[in-house]
Specification:
The chain has about 375 residues and is α+β, with helices and mostly antiparallel strands. The chain contains 11 helices and 13 strands. The strands form 4 sheets. It has a 5-stranded mixed sheet with strand order 4-7-8-9-10, sandwiched between helices. It is elongated, with a radius of gyration of 28 Å. About 10% of the residues have low confidence.
Length: about 375
């Protein structure tokens, strides 16, 4: 379970800037993959807290094996005919921390509402013309022409996807995660394409926005035993970058400046935060006699419902058998009709058409 924890000294800047994972959390492409959503970003910007993913290998191992995955990715690019000259450095190599423990931000951009919205849009949204936010990116890997180069010519993101987690199990299959774009196709496509997770595509675009570059590579490790790494290429997408900037500005104005709390989307961390905020106690107490009675009735009702469901299934099979090859049966007492149709498995299933439960119940009492 991921709880919210206070940002440490090195990362406290994240409360003031919109990092590369924030846009996907705001627009919804990150939820279900990173467990982050609008509520997570809201807590980060207003409370200086972030979700605690310590002890969760799908997050921590990406950092531990970052250099190895990056090296494998670069080698894989060479195998595919893509050469990256010069040298590469990881985010850890370039980490710059001040004496007071705060981090020096390398890639920061100011996003201005006046440049992203027309005067009419600003008026309709109620956004002041001088609203601005700071965007920041920290690519996992940067590629330089030489040892003295200060500006990279390309960047890369490293992803650990080698876990049989329910959120990641369909990454290479034709049954992607529900609720996000891409239905009917694998999340990851052919190598050297930009067919990656929607959240990763947005993250790469945020890197390109802040670095001013045109291409970001993505190295995804799918198998720890074989060190299988696939490589993808995400080119700068001005239309998507513009969309992300606008959504971040709208989010900042509505939720951070005006303090409107986003709707609580399901997340263990968000649940924890609300419990903490509302001071809901986390201990169990002895049930009262009334509560005990409620639980007993609840369990009994569940047992009756399960029994009734089983009985209804047996009766449906009997009706299918008696109806046989006919289309269905009707009644002269305005009860409605019962018909048959082919189910997904090819077997017949019962279809009720306008059954009047009150009349049928009344008749059963009379028969009884």
């Amino acid at each position: 379970m991921a709880d919210f924890i206070r940002l440490d000294k090195e990362n406290e800047h994240r409360a003031q800037v919109y990092g590369s994972t924030n846009p996907s959390s705001i627009v919804g492409t990150g939820y279900g993959v990173t467990k982050m959503n609008k509520f997570s970003v809201y807590v980060e910007k207003t409370r200086g807290m972030t979700q605690d993913f310590s002890g969760q290998p799908e997050y921590s191992d990406g950092n531990v094996f970052q250099d190895g995955i990056a090296q494998k990715g670069i080698s894989r690019l060479a195998e595919l005919g893509v050469s990256l000259p010069g040298e590469w450095r990881t985010e850890e190599d370039m980490k710059d921390v001040r004496e007071d423990g705060t981090k020096v931000l390398r890639w920061t951009t100011e996003i201005k509402a006046s440049e992203e919205f027309s005067a009419k849009e600003l008026q309709e949204l109620g956004i002041p013309v001088d609203l601005a936010v700071k965007a920041n990116a920290s690519p996992d890997v940067e590629f330089f022409k030489g040892p003295r180069s200060r500006k990279p010519y390309a960047v890369a993101e490293v992803k650990m996807r080698a876990y049989a987690d329910s959120r990641f199990k369909n990454l290479l299959s034709n049954d992607p995660m529900p609720g996000l774009p891409g239905a009917g196709k694998p999340w990851y496509g052919e190598e050297l394409t930009n067919e990656v997770l929607p959240s990763e595509y947005d993250q790469c675009q945020w890197h390109l926005l802040n670095t001013g570059l045109d291409v970001s590579y993505l190295f995804a490790c799918f198998n720890m035993m074989t060190s299988s790494v696939k490589v993808y290429v995400v080119n700068r997408d001005e239309k998507r970058i513009s969309f992300l900037k606008r959504e971040v500005l709208k989010f900042h104005w509505r939720h951070v400046v005006n303090g409107e709390e986003p709707s609580l989307e399901r997340s263990s961390a968000c649940d924890w935060y609300v419990r903490s905020r509302d001071q809901v106690t986390g201990h169990y107490r002895e049930a009262t006699s009334q509560e005990t009675e409620l639980v007993i009735r609840f369990v009994e009702a569940g047992a009756i419902a399960a029994k009734a469901k089983k009985e209804a299934y047996k009766l449906s099979l009997e009706m299918i058998d008696t109806i046989g090859k006919d289309k269905g049966i009707s009644f002269g007492q305005d009860w409605g009709r019962v018909g048959l149709r082919k189910g997904k498995t090819g077997k017949s299933v019962i279809v009720t058409q306008g059954l009047n439960s009150e009349l049928i119940s009344e008749e059963s009492k009379n028969v009884g």
